[in-house]
Every structure is written in C-alpha cells, then in structure tokens.
C-alpha cells in the first residue's frame, strides 16, 4: 500500500477506517460482480442457443444466482471417510482468497488524463480508487495466481479418491504450463512501462500516442502478440472453455471437486467466476489503459469508472462467447499449444522488445535491429520445428516397434496354443 497517498505521513484511526471502508467496498463489489457474471453467462449462452435461460427468480432471472447460493448453504456437507479433513475443508478457501487479493491491486477509477496521477478525494483525504498499490503489484498478481493452484491440487489430494487426484494433477500441470507464457507476456508490459505497480502501468498508458490523438495502450505498444498470448494463457489458467479439461465430466467424473458438496462446492464455483472477473480486470489494466478514457460531459470522477466497467464487461462477454462457441481441446493439444507455441513465442517476443528498447537507448539503427532480431527468431522457430518433427518421428518409430513386438508375441502364443491342442 506504500504507493497510496492515503498512507503517506502519519497514519491514525481515520486512515484505518478509510482502508477498512475500501476493503468492504472491494469485497462486496466482487461478490456482486460474481453473481452478475453467473447470471450473465447463463443468459447470454441461452440467447446464443435459442433458449430462455433463468427467468423465475427475480426480474429476468437476476436473482437465480442468489437462490442457488442459498440452496447450497442448506445442502448436506459430505466429507469422505478417507479424506484429510483439515485440508479437505481448507482447499476451497485457498481457491477463493487469491481471487479477492488479486483484485485488491486493480485501479478501477481515477482521472489519469492531462498529466494527473489518478487520485480522488475520499472523506477529505487524497487516495487511489483501488484497495492497495504495492510497488510489486504485478509480481503480487502472478504470485496469487500461483497460490490458487494449491487449492485445486490439495482438493484432489485430500479427497482420498483416485479420480479427484487425477483431476487435480491434470489441473496443476495445465495451470503451471500456462503460467510460464502468462508471466512472459506480463514481462513485456513491465519492460515498456518500467514499473511493477499497476497504478503506474495505467498512468503510463494514459499518455497520448501518435501525436497525442490516440491512447497509448500496451495493446499496440507491445505489438498485439503479448496480449493474444496473455488472453489464451489466462483462459487456460481459469480452466475456462475450450481449456476446461479440469472439469471435463466425460473424462474424469467431475474433476478435482468430485467429492465436494454443499457450500464447499459452491466456493469452488464462486472462485471460478470470481477469477474470471479478476482476470478480465487484469487484462483491462495491463493492455487497455485501465480506467483511462475521454471525459465527455458531467463530473470527471464518473467517466473513469464508466470506461473501466465498459472494458471489463467486454472481456466478460468474450469469455462467455468462448464457452458458447469453441469445442474443447484434447489434453495433448492443450499441452502442445502451451509448451511448443506460446512459451517459445512469448519468450522470443520479449527478447525482440528488449532488443528494440536497447537499440533506442543506445542510438542504434532500430530498423536494422528489428530485422536482425526477427531473423534470429525465424531461425529459432525453424530449429524448434525440426526438433518437434524429429521427436514425433522417433515416437512414431518406437510405437511401431512396440506394436510389432506385441504382434509377434501374440502370433507366437497363438501358434503354441495350436500345437498344444494338436
């Protein structure tokens, strides 16, 4: 919280109460946003599939999520006999808490235009419209996304059943695999912004580009590629379709939460949709300028909040659109995409941006540096493709050899049985 002007200088009870007020607002907002996201997804998918969707509880079915949550509270809470009871109970909490903590560093408002720093006046004190602004905000986001893996892994392990354990191992492998490409795409943003603070990253994007007539979003400042990599990696990190193999019921019963019921299952459900809201907010912050946008008419403090939620809603709709339209990947396709494409591409693009940054700082020929870096990237891609092809041929040859031996063994056994019969 050191970057927040509210916490600079002497800190008394008034500042403590202001921080607690911001904590309450953030927590309530996330719960309401998650309820809205569940309802929004069900209604949008039903419209895309020519169905009605929830329409009984409240106007347009808006209270259906609340009704489902209340029902989950009163269901029987089952705990398997062979489970580790303490870990079994703690795993859902480990999935929910990181989502809330991650959203704490997201700026959702504040005027960043005309050289302003995004501060607002709250009860007579200057502060940021975000819960906390640590100088390692981006690293904090990555750390919390890594901690969320423990909730899923421990849930499967503590259930005392084989299928949840297999589901949790698969989930951990998927999330760790895409964590690498996600982190490398974030590193490209940090490289250009020169800061790990989410507030400063937004402030850097508020400066006009192309003569000041266009927002300087990291979307095009990084060359689009880190954004695409981050979007795909975030979708896999969230276990959202088409990468929802963690919960593919036709493959692993119900995934890591097979043995969960009642409110503990609801917590996993809550964590999934809360993470979707949080990850959408991170995308808006890192690549689309956060709350920065033009002031049209009326009070200045309203428009940054409006632009933030407009961008946030766009990405929430996109995740729902993915779910409604894209078929599920096979697990080998999922791993191939992460390890053979996204990680090499994100690493190569980060090195390209670093080379261009050094070229500008040292006064080198930027065009020549870009051509040389792209040539090296092409060479590396060619070598990688050759290695992948050779590995596939070796694997195919081994499979044919194993099948050939198995066939000869079966033929020999059949001949022996025939001779014995004769």
Task: Provide an overview of this structure.
The structure is a single chain. The protein is mainly alpha-helical and about 425 residues long. It is built from 13 helices and 4 strands. The protein has helices at about 15-50, 65-75, 85-105, 135-160, 160-195, 200-205, 220, 225-235, 250, 260-285, 300-325, 330-360, 365-420, and strands at about 120, 125-130, 210, 215. The strands form 2 sheets. A two-stranded antiparallel sheet has the order 1-2. A two-stranded antiparallel sheet has the order 3-4. α5 runs antiparallel to α8 (about 225-235). The protein is globular. The N and C termini lie far apart (about 85 Å). The model has no long low-confidence stretch (mean pLDDT about 85).
Strand-helix topology:
Elements: H1 13-48, H2 64-73, H3 85-103, E1 119-122, E2 125-128, H4 137-158, H5 162-193, H6 198-205, E3 208-209, E4 214-215, H7 218-221, H8 225-237, H9 249-252, H10 262-287, H11 302-325, H12 331-362, H13 366-421
Antiparallel strand pairs: 1-2, 3-4
Helix pairs in contact: 1-10, 1-11, 2-10, 3-4, 3-10, 4-5, 5-8, 5-12, 8-12, 10-11, 12-13
In a nutshell, what does this entry contain?
This protein has 422 residues and is an all-alpha fold. Helices cover 68% and strands 3% of the residues.
Give, in spatial order, the strands making up the sheet with the most strands. Answer: 1-2
> Which oligomerization state do the chains in this entry correspond to?
single chain
Strand content: under 5%
Individual helix count: 13
Helix content: 55-70%
Number of strands: 4
Q: Note poorly predicted spans.
A: none
Nearest-angstrom radius of gyration? 26 Å
Biggest sheet descriptor: 2 strands, antiparallel
Q: For the residues shown, what is the average pLDDT?
A: 85
